[in-house]
Write the structure tokens for this entry.
Amino acid sequence: MSDKDWTDLHVERWREHWIDVDFDDDVEAIVTRIARLARYLKGTVATALVETGLQDFEYDTLHALMIRDTPGVASPTELAEVLKVSAAGMTGRLDGLERAGWVQRAPSPEDRRRVIVEVTKAGVDVWRRTQGGRGAQEADLVEALTQRERELLNRLLRKLSLRAESE
């Protein structure tokens, strides 16, 4: 059995096509592996969504609500900004989530002219079930690494993230 993965074979195939261009095997392998892992992780979310019956936009909205500094509470404008959707798009999302019983809208206690969105117990439950399914698949993937390797990989990925975020 070979220790080569799909990316190793990809780099070997493509190296010959880039004779006239500066082709760095390591750069190509790193970027390709990150992209393939991102697709895999997107698939873990898709699988969890199928199991819970959520649509991706419903999950994205519940997730944005739940991972805030004020978990489960936000204004529609704050959610629209985080999710990069229009005000009309956010209204449509919230209408559907409210019909499903996963969120409720109420006047803001600080300013009755404003509306706040709060996740309901049913919304928390469906979000947690989705997170649980997704988390189990992610944990299974990372189990391939020792604790020391996890810490190293985390530090290296943080460096790349900080570089990307600074640009």
